Amino acid sequence: MSAQHNSWGRVTRRQRGTARLEDLADSAADGLLPFGNGRSYGDSCHNDRGRLIAMRPGAAIRAFDPETGVLTADAGVLLSDILALVMPQGYFLEVTPGTAQVTLGGAIANDVHGKNHHRRGTFGRSVLSFTLLSSDGSRTLCSTSDNQSLFAATIGGMGLTGVIEAATIRLMPVPSANVRQTAFRFTSIDGYFDAIDEIDARHEYSVAWIDQLARGGSLGRGALMAGDHAEHGGPARAPSAPRLAVPFSPPVNLLNRLTLKAFNALYYARAPKTPETVIVPWASYFHPLDAITGWNQLYGPRGLFQHQSVYPFETGRETTIALIECAQAHGAASFLTVLKRFGDVPSPGLLSFPRPGFTLTLDFANSGERTLKMLNALDAIVLKAGGALNPYKDQRMGPEMFAASFPNWRELEAMRDPALMSDLWRRTAMVLDRDQPATRSMSTAARL
């Protein structure tokens, strides 16, 4: 049996074999992989040699206590469904990524982050416990106090340690889900770095949009949007259905240098020259692109690559400039260029991407070898700065870059369920493991 289960980047699109959860114990040599809603950009959710276990069918929220803000749900439940239930009761996710169309299991497996990492760290810090199904048929309760090693390996473990069946998370009480946003534009990248420390000290959330095409004295210009939950406004409702949709992939990339230059100029001009505070709907602040169904198709039939890196505070300004200039030198245009500051709140996950420093996200239409050459050049800048790449957004980094980003990858390999495999792990860790043999995956009993 096969179905179309693709990642958000759409660089590779094909029929992928599917399996049931019950098939985990009888997996073939090429393995299985749990699949949520396909919002990972790269191949961490692909297993083209094996099969995928669809986690969404039948998933439901099992319990929610409005007194404590503790919720239990199946792994295939979308974050949007959780928000729809808890917002009217005065709660919100402690950490939400840039889309609510991800599953609870996917948020844990990718240890996603949001616009408030400097305050609350990653999604994994909200996780109280989960049940993990292993290929030997056993179920294990994992938490900060039970099976701690497996708990840590599963958070950010990309679905490789076992199948998360259900999880219990902590939500945070808020006076309103809507956001009191303070926004202003900065004329160059210096404006961001000169302001961000104070901004993050004062606000729960912050994110900056960057005009990646601006040059000269305007290089890195953009707009910074800081926010806190509004003190008034009452319970928020779930957003209405998306108003716009891209029903098919156009034959060419519509997000090219010409269109983006015009868009960037307009977006920058509309940003306030001086700080301006307004109340904005929660959905437009946290998940603006969820309002456009299929927006990833605007990149054309060959899909897109997203490059997200993190690099230390000490060289943040210089590294950000180098990355922007590198993309410009290769003639590339990034539609979604986002700059955020990660704090020093540690993640409970073994292989989590966020760490103290700055993170820059760029995305590019796939132009084949030209794009790959540029991405390799961006990697080299990140590597020189002592940074790392986000594996959940990647679909082409080499084993060496992966090892430099996650030097403790062998610890996850030792905890990996032998029945589970992904294209990313096969492309990176398995190549490293062949080149430098080490202890293979342990049995479930040994892992526990």
UniProtKB/TrEMBL annotation:
SUPFAM superfamilies: FAD-binding/transporter-associated domain-like
Domain FAD-binding PCMH-type stretches: 1-174
Pfam families noted in UniProt: FAD_binding_4
Record bears the keyword Flavoprotein: yes
Gene3D superfamilies cross-referenced by the UniProt entry: 3.30.465.10
Keyword tags: FAD, Flavoprotein
Domain of life from the UniProt record: Bacteria
Flavoprotein keyword on record: yes
PANTHER family: D-LACTATE DEHYDROGENASE (PTHR11748)
Name of protein: FAD-binding oxidoreductase
Naturally occurring in which organism (per UniProt): Hoeflea algicola
